[in-house]
Amino acid sequence: MAADEQRNHPGDLEAAPRPSAFLVPHSRPPKRNRSCFCKCRRRTILSPIAFIVAVAATFGILYLTLCLIDPNDPKYSVNRLSMSAFSVDKDLNVKAAFNVTVTATNPNKRIGIYYVDGSEVNMLYAGTRLCSGEFPVFYQGHRITTVMALMLNGQVKVGSELLNALQEQQRTGMVPVSFEGRVPIKVKIGALKIWKVTARLNCDLVVNSLSVSNQISIKTSTCKFRLKL
Ligand SMILES: *[C@@H]1O[C@H](CO)[C@@H](O)[C@H](O)[C@H]1NC(C)=O
């Protein structure tokens, strides 16, 4: 019996590794499941971290790029104003022609500005457009100040209240007018020319009078600038 047992045992022992060898793969799936479970858990834990790292890196690069580019709004001012025509006929048609001297400054050291076709500038009195013109088409390089004379022409029919208000203000020597512009521009950063955006320019002026005779004196002038993407 003992010999048989001994005989059997080695046989069992020999046979045992085989099933166990076969069992090992069988015993692996739970391990795999476990490891997959761990991996999956790790993935779900890692992915928000990876996401945050990616977002932080993106913002970091953007921030550094912006620091390097250091963008500043261009500056505009209306320096001189004169009229070559200003008349009102009996039907209350106002004919006006302005010569507006505008100074445009590009303060950027890495951004160039292309002023492109399709601009419109207007001179308004009490919300009524008296005349309009265009911005010149040109490229303004880094840290350049450009002085330009814009010629505005127009004819508009107005109400008698508007003319009465204007006459009253002409007497006091304080006539508020606004000069506004919609100017399409293309921004150039290094060699990269970026898509067209519209620059909106709005200047509130108070002048002594609207008249053809002599140069109009500008009492106050404030210009605002914003970009419409
Ligand atoms: C417009 O005004 C500017 C500056 O005062 C002047 O140099 C220019 O000759 C004027 N242009 C016209 C057509 O009157």
Automatic annotation (TrEMBL):
GO cellular component terms, A-Z: plasma membrane
Segments of skewed composition (Basic and acidic residues): 1-12
Topology of this chain in the membrane: Single-pass membrane protein
Domain Late embryogenesis abundant protein LEA-2 subgroup: 101-200
Listed GO biological process terms: defense response to other organism
Pfam families: LEA_2
Segments for region (Disordered): 1-31
Membrane-traversing stretches: 44-66
Keywords, sorted A to Z: Membrane, Transmembrane, Transmembrane helix
Subcellular location: Membrane
Protein name, entry field: Late embryogenesis abundant protein LEA-2 subgroup domain-containing protein
Source organism per UniProt: Dioscorea zingiberensis
